[in-house]
Specification:
By secondary structure, the chain is α/β, with parallel strands linked by helices. It contains 14 helices and 13 strands. The chain folds into 2 domains: 7-74 and 112-203, 3-Layer(aba) Sandwich (Rossmann fold); 84-106 and 217-384, Rossmann fold (3-Layer(aba) Sandwich). It is 36% helix and 15% strand. Helix 10 (243-258) links the parallel strand 10 and strand 11 (267-273).
Length: 402
């Protein structure tokens, strides 16, 4: 059954080369990631907020602005439509106006990576691809392995040897071929790039295929819809490879062009760990691209990306929205996880904790004003990081009382 997709093609944001979305592509000939384009006029005529509100509660409700042409190719585990939770106690403690958390921890495979995997695998299925390959710090590999298994595809995953054990086990359990690397995700990517020509696999590394971003942009659509098609003043996101923040910015500009929201866009905030902050350093210099961050290390493993392929797109989104890039250290992250859990009952991942820690800095410096509304993205469930927190607890004798 045909969807109402209004995709018109793929375009290079650097050189403006165009490609056919009915064929498999990776990067542009100039080396840039490709972005999906849509017939905005046709999409606006096909549906609007009133029609969308009666659709199933999943990311597929925005089908006009998604790339899958045939609904039979959709590979789904029920992803999307995660809650937007008010953080009243935390907001009051630090003097925020209105503070919300978009909680991606309850999505399939426990992180926002499921959005990109659902879209990327679905489009790969539509294009007849049978083997997908990628480097991962953990959660992306777990998501792509799960969705590839559901689609009947083979997944080939390279990951650093010190990636979280729980995600390694998820990937293996899903039947993917896993290769451990004594190095960083950047080293995994180099090995994969050398291996793919001989193997004939389809490279689904971050931004090396055009459709992961289309799944992740639905976070932006959902935030706007959940806020009554209004937008907050600030949206803050943990930034490693950068697909999430690029996708949210893409969603915002698309919704503006569709007429679903007004002209004003939220100020976007990229949050990184102090031990791996290439975007922050580039933003401080007002540079258009970042430099490789040497000896990167952080407990927020999902944002330990020394240099992102789409760094120029992240920085452009920050500049165009008058946004900000901020770094927090691991001690701040470790303090924030139990703090937010005790204030709000939300056990979030280290990357999500980094975002709250970053927003606290911006509020303390009054970049984020007292009357403004902010949304932070928690990109995964805290229980996927069982070794992040360690507490010394007292024992009670079995014959005693408390």
């Amino acid at each position: 059954m045909k969807t109402q997709s209004c995709i018109s093609g793929l375009v290079c944001p650097k050189c403006q080369n165009r490609y056919d979305h009915r064929e498999a592509h990776n990067l542009c000939s100039c080396g840039s990631p490709l972005l999906a384009e849509y017939d905005i006029r046709r999409a606006a005529a096909a549906a609007g907020p009133e029609a969308i509100k009666n659709r199933p509660a999943s990311l597929w409700r925005y089908e006009e602005m998604l790339p899958v042409l045939d609904g039979a190719n959709i590979v789904s585990l029920g992803e999307g439509w995660t809650p937007l939770i008010p953080l009243a106690a935390a907001g009051a403690k630090y003097g925020f106006g209105k503070l919300y958390m978009k909680d991606e921890g309850i999505i399939p495979t426990g992180t926002f990576k499921a959005r990109g995997a659902a879209m990327g695998v679905s489009k790969a299925k539509e294009l007849g691809i049978r083997h997908v390959a990628m480097p991962t710090n953990g959660n992306a590999g777990a998501a792509w392995a799960a969705y590839a298994a559901r689609a009947g595809m083979e997944a080939h995953i390279l990951m650093p040897e010190d990636a979280p054990l729980i995600t390694r086990n998820e990937i293996v359990a899903a039947g993917a071929q896993v290769h451990l690397v004594r190095g960083l995700i950047s080293d995994c990517g180099k090995i994969l790039a050398r291996s793919i020509p001989a193997r004939g696999w389809y490279d689904v590394s971050t931004l090396k295929e055009p459709y992961r971003i289309e799944g992740k942009k639905t976070m932006g659509y959902e935030i706007a819809e959940q806020m009554g098609w209004q937008v907050p003043d600030v949206i803050a996101y943990p930034t490693g490879g950068g697909v999430g923040i690029i996708g949210i910015y893409k969603a915002l500009t698309e919704m503006r062009d569709l007429g679903w929201i007004g002209e004003k866009l939220p100020r976007l905030v990229a949050v990184q760990a102090a031990g791996c902050a290439p975007i922050v350093e580039a933003w401080r210099k007002k540079a258009g691209t970042s430099e490789f961050f040497p000896n990167s290390r952080t407990i927020a493993f999902g944002i330990n990306v020394p240099r992102a392929l789409g760094d120029f797109l992240v920085l452009d989104a920050l500049y165009r929205t008058n946004g900000y890039a901020v770094a927090v250290d691991d001690a701040e992250i470790l303090k924030t996880i139990p703090e937010l859990a005790s204030l709000e009952g939300t056990f979030i991942c280290p990357e999500g904790a980094a975002v709250f820690a970053g927003l606290k800095k911006l509020r303390a410096g009054n970049w984020l004003k007292a009357g403004e509304t902010a949304v932070l993205l928690n990109t995964g469930a805290g229980i996927k990081y069982p070794d992040t927190l360690k507490f010394d607890l007292p024992y009670c004798p079995v014959d005693g009382t408390v």
